Structure formats: C-alpha cells, structure tokens
C-alpha cells in the first residue's frame, strides 16, 4: 500500500472515450495497448484505505493486483461506454441509463458473475454496480459486451463515497451486497462495510418500499448484519431473522462449493419503511 501519492479522485473512471480507442480483437493479445488514462487509473492509490483525504475507514485494502490481458483490454476499450466516472454530485439515472426504470445498486460486485446473471434476468430494472477492484471491473465490462447487457452501468470508486455523493435520497429500488469482505480478524472488524453509520446513509437512499439484500458465508458477520440492519429505524426485516435465498440471486461456484462442504450462507432482506 502506498500512502504517499496525492489523492486524485478523478483518476477512477476517467476512461478514454470508447469511440476514440482502437478495439483489441479477442481482448487477450499479449501486447494490449493501454492509454495514459487507463494506466493512471490502474496505478492510482486514490482508493487506498489510508490515502490522504479519506474521511472514513475503507472497507478494502487496494484495488490493484493481478489483472489479465483480457480484463485490461476491456478496461481500455469499454470503460468509456459503460462506466460512469465518480463525481461528487448527484447522478441522474434516467440520463445514465437512457431510460426511466427502477435502479438497483450493487456494492462490491467482484468479478461480476452474479451481476451479469441478475441484470440479464431482470431486463426491466437498471443495475448500477460499484467496485474498486480493477480486474473485477475489467471482468464485468467483458461480460457486458459478451452478453450484450444494456441495463448495467459501473462506477469504479469507493461505494461509501458513491452512496454519499451520487445517489439521491429515497431513490433506489434496491441494494445488493453479496459476500462483502468478511475482515475476519477482530482488529479488522472496523473495516466491515455493514456498520450502523453506513447502513443509515444507505437506507436513506432507498425509496420507501425498496429493499436491501445482503448475503454472507461468515456466520459472525451474518449476526452483525442482522443486528445492524435490525437496529436501523428506516428498515424493517421481511423475514423472521434470515431470509430464504430469493430465486433472483444465483448460487455462485464458490458458494456451491462451500455448501457442499457444509458451510452456511445467510441472506438478509430488509425493506425501507416509509
Ligand atoms: C469478497 S468480494 C465479493 C464479490 C462478489 N459480490 C461476490 O459475491 O463474489 C467483495 C468485493 O467488494 C469490493 N469492495 C469492498 N469494499 C468496497 C467499497 N467500499 N466500494 C466498492 N467495492 C468494495 C472488493 O473490491 C471485492 O471485490
């Protein structure tokens, strides 16, 4: 982690215009040409936990790490078409998606496997995926292209800031937070995303009647989620404790393996009260 680089929030998502960037057929060429903008975004430490200017404890460590040539090529080629740069001002979903439709926010989509399936299965909803991890963003961009997904946009930035700055109060139809980083060590619990202050902020962005759906395979995090969501006055549990997994959330490969090994998975679905 490098905390010496000045924060440059605009680096994330400032991808080149897709139209001005030559496509890389196949996307896996060994010598993917990378523009200065993509290189800057990849190298940015703007989102590091302790970067100067951070006003809250980050729920992630860094967004660098291994990235395949295909993911890199997708970032280079598709960011301009499908991502929305972070900016400290309200997003107008009708403009971002080119239509009026219920908007569901997904925080931390990882490699985007679940995001792709849900966006395809629910074409009448808009999905806004927020992730900090370069390889994950590259992976979801490839899925968008390969599956010709039209109802999905990406913001590559800390979701806490996206929710605070870009999402209007009472505006979201739903929020998905699937398998957030568990931060298992007690001294790291402060990095967990599901904390009272963030849930209060997030709940204020959900429209009355809208929902928040979390899932985790860490039992003690599930207990924390139930407590935090249960104590938030803007939310009401739709189940008596944990909820059955709804059909729209597909089982991931990782989750399937865990279930075969006898590990538990806990879903929580709360509604925003009026
Ligand atoms: C354990 S992974 C789960 C990924 C995916 N939801 C799944 O079910 O496979 C958690 C993801 O959340 C992302 N993440 C953590 N904190 C975040 C934040 N504050 N803003 C955006 N993404 C975040 C991480 O980069 C990581 O990809």
TrEMBL record:
MF term (GO), any: tRNA (guanine(46)-N7)-methyltransferase activity
A GO cellular component annotation in the UniProt record: tRNA methyltransferase complex
Binding site for S-adenosyl-L-methionine: 106, 131, 158, 181
Pathway: tRNA modification; N(7)-methylguanine-tRNA biosynthesis
Family annotation (InterPro entries): SAM-dependent_MTases_sf, tRNA_(Gua-N-7)_MeTrfase_Trmb, tRNA_methyltr_TrmB_bact
Origin: domain of life: Bacteria
Compositional bias ranges of the Low complexity kind: 9-27
The keyword Transferase appears for this protein: yes
Pfam family, one: Methyltransf_4
Known catalytic reactions: guanosine(46) in tRNA + S-adenosyl-L-methionine = N(7)-methylguanosine(46) in tRNA + S-adenosyl-L-homocysteine
Region span, Disordered: 1-55
Binding site for substrate: 185, 217, 252-255
Keywords, sorted A to Z: Methyltransferase, S-adenosyl-L-methionine, Transferase, tRNA processing
Entry EC no(s): 2.1.1.33
Record NCBIfam families: tRNA (guanosine(46)-N7)-methyltransferase TrmB (TIGR00091)
Sequence similarity: Belongs to the class I-like SAM-binding methyltransferase superfamily. TrmB family.
Function comment: Catalyzes the formation of N(7)-methylguanine at position 46 (m7G46) in tRNA.
Entry protein name: tRNA (guanine-N(7)-)-methyltransferase
């Amino acid at each position: 982690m490098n905390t010496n680089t000045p924060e440059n929030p605009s680096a994330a998502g400032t991808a080149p215009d897709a139209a001005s960037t030559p496509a890389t057929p196949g996307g896996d060429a060994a010598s993917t040409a990378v523009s200065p903008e993509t290189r800057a975004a990849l190298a940015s430490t703007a989102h590091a936990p302790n970067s100067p200017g951070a006003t809250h404890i980050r729920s992630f460590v860094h967004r660098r790490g291994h990235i395949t040539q295909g993911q890199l090529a997708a970032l280079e080629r598709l960011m301009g078409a499908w991502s929305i740069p972070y900016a400290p001002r309200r997003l107008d979903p009708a403009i971002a998606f080119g239509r009026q439709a219920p908007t569901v926010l997904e925080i931390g989509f990882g490699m985007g496997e679940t995001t792709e399936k849900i966006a395809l299965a629910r074409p009448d909803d808009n999905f806004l995926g927020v992730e900090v991890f370069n390889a994950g963003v590259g992976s979801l961009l490839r899925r968008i292209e390969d599956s010709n997904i039209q109802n999905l946009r990406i913001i590559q930035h800390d979701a806490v800031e996206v929710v605070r700055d870009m999402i209007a109060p009472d505006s979201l139809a739903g929020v998905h937070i699937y398998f957030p980083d568990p931060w298992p060590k007690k001294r790291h619990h402060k990095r967990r995303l599901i904390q009272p202050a963030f849930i209060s902020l997030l709940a204020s962005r959900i429209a009355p009647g809208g929902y928040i759906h979390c899932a985790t395979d860490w039992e003690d995090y599930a207990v924390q989620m139930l407590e935090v969501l249960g104590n938030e006055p803007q939310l009401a549990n739709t189940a008596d404790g944990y909820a059955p997994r709804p059909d729209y959330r597909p089982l991931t490969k990782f989750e399937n393996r865990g279930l075969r090994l006898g590990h538990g998975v806990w879903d929580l679905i709360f509604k925003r009260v009026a």
